[in-house]
Amino acid sequence: MLKPRFISFHLHFPQFVRFGQKRKVFFQRAFTVIELMVTLAIVGVIATIAAPAYENYRDRINTAQAIADIKTIEGMLERFYGSNNRYPLSLTEAGANNIVDPWGNAYQYTNLSDPSIRNVTGLARKDRNLVPINSDFDLYSQGKDGRSVSPLTASQSRDDIVRANNGRYVGLASGY
């Protein structure tokens, strides 16, 4: 018949064992509460240092993914232009409506080359001099905060991933 085993926790008390004339002190193999607290403090400090670094790493990955997505959508829009001699009125017409940015928001598209669209220059994204950054179409992600306004210098637009100079620049609005 098997006997139940119990897990026992040992305190850190010395045991004295006699070997001939010499007395030796042996300690039981266990961690003290102080040793555990120091270890937890070290792990906490390392986690505090590592968390912001990991967040920056994730932001760079998401930005790179959004740049790749914008270039892919731009290629789809250019193929549409090659077939129809005009840019589509929406991403749905070009077949790119199901693509979302890494933060879960839909990519924003504005056709700037169609003269039938009223106030098209008012809808265009603008640089620090309030000059439109594209002449054919605007394509951008609203970034991490999911908010955006027309001028790139506004605080809500600084984290946007934009296509500018008719596709010669794709990257953070703060870097344009």
Give a written overview of the molecule.
This protein is of the alpha+beta class. It has a single domain, classed as 2-Layer Sandwich (Glycoprotein, Type 4 Pilin). 34% of the residues lie in helices and 16% in strands. The protein contains 3 helices and 6 strands. The strands form 2 sheets. The protein has a 4-stranded antiparallel sheet, with helices on one face. The chain has a two-stranded antiparallel sheet with strand order 1-2. The longest helix has 52 residues. The N and C termini lie far apart (78 Å).
List keywords for this structure.
176 residues; alpha+beta; Glycoprotein, Type 4 Pilin; 4-stranded antiparallel sheet; two-stranded antiparallel ribbon; 3 helices; 6 strands; 34% helix; 16% strand; elongated
